[in-house]
Amino acid sequence: MNCFEKARRVVVKVGTSTLTYDTGLINIRHLERLVKTLSDLKNSGRDVILVSSGAIGVGVGKLGLKERPQDTPSKQAAASVGQCELMYLYDKLFSEYNHTISQVLITRDAIDNPDRKQHIMNTFERLMDYGAIPIVNENDTVSVEEIEFGDNDSLSAIVAAIAQADALVVMTDVDGLYDADPRTCENARLIRQVDQVDDALRAKASGAGTRRGTGGMITKLNAAEFAMERGIDMAIVNGKDPYILYRLFEGQQVGTHFKRKG
């Protein structure tokens, strides 16, 4: 039995590239499989929190824009439209498995303020008590800071710490952390386990994400370091098939495991 098999409270982060096609429109098959798998994990007795990117990307598709906007007001407008679409779909799909979801939109200043942070912690605990599945995103519609600097990789690690999770899983469009960029290097080797995030490891990571998202491997390494230092195991796995979560939580070795400290 590995640490993920034993995890009772888990945070799963899914990125824009997993949720959408290149057109920006929802990848319905992926979304349905993700919801089914998370519902099954919930049925197994685990607490599940989903950190979902994609509001801006989905908004771009919903509005029929040709590409992701670059100016902040347009990004905020796309996020406003996309967030409605995402939550509608999540509510519809999770309801099919008799699970109740909640929406939690967070801004960085709320995390930095001790009193507001405590309120967020209390809310998560009560939602867990009620058996709900919180769906978390940065509040892109009103927060300029997150759109310009942030990515939900960092948010997912913060949420995992606030919710006192045992494990964090970041789903992306590659199999895990490689010793070179697998998109350009045929001999790139998957790193199965990381015990420490250091400058040498960061040098192996490319900083750019996909056209539809904002993050890259560097943001995932920062999230991993944050989680590891707080006693949380983290895995980076390929979100191409959300059923991979079954394998991870059944004890199989998939992706890259960042081993918690202590």
Automatic annotation (TrEMBL):
Family named by the database record: Belongs to the glutamate 5-kinase family.
Keyword Thylakoid applies: no
Signal sequence residues: none
A molecular-function term among this protein's GO annotations: ATP binding
GO biological process: L-proline biosynthetic process
CDD domains: AAK_G5K_ProB (cd04242)
Aspartate/glutamate/uridylate kinase domain mapped to chain residues: 9-238
Name of the coding gene: proB
Residues noted as binding substrate in the record, renumbered to the chain: 53, 140, 152
Keyword ATP-binding belongs to the record: yes
InterPro entries in UniProt: AceGlu_kinase-like_sf, Asp/Glu/Uridylate_kinase, G5K_ProB, Glu/AcGlu_kinase, Glu_5kinase, Glu_5kinase/COase_Synthase, Glutamate_5-kinase_CS
Reaction(s) the record says it catalyses: L-glutamate + ATP = L-glutamyl 5-phosphate + ADP
Annotated function: Catalyzes the transfer of a phosphate group to glutamate to form L-glutamate 5-phosphate.
PROSITE patterns, sorted: GLUTAMATE_5_KINASE (PS00902)
Protein name: Glutamate 5-kinase
Enzyme Commission designation: 2.7.2.11
Chief location category: cytoplasm
Recorded GO CC terms: cytosol
Subcellular location: Cytoplasm
Binding site for ATP: 13, 172-173, 214-220
Pathway: Amino-acid biosynthesis; L-proline biosynthesis; L-glutamate 5-semialdehyde from L-glutamate: step 1/2
Native source organism of the sequence: Zongyangia hominis
Tree of life domain: Bacteria
